[in-house]
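2024-03-11 09:14:02 DEBUG pipeline.ingest accepted 1 chain
2024-03-11 09:14:02 DEBUG pipeline.ingest length=68
2024-03-11 09:14:03 DEBUG pipeline.predict start
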Amino acid sequence: MSNSRSGISLLAGFLLGAAIGALAALVVAPQAGQQTRQQLKERTIELRGHAQEPSSGRHDQADDQATD
């Protein structure tokens, strides 16, 4: 029980630190907010595409193995 709580606390602390760091980076960024938001949007779309590519290959492999 104690192990579970410490893991959750660690995760919560990590997420809180990441959020504070992201906010600080946006506040001190040398470019306009609109440019920053556009870059974040483009990067998110790019990363989403990279994340979906490997999973589609695994799905095809699983289908092939299931039919064998």
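2024-03-11 09:14:41 DEBUG pipeline.report The radius of gyration is 19 Å.
2024-03-11 09:14:41 DEBUG pipeline.predict end
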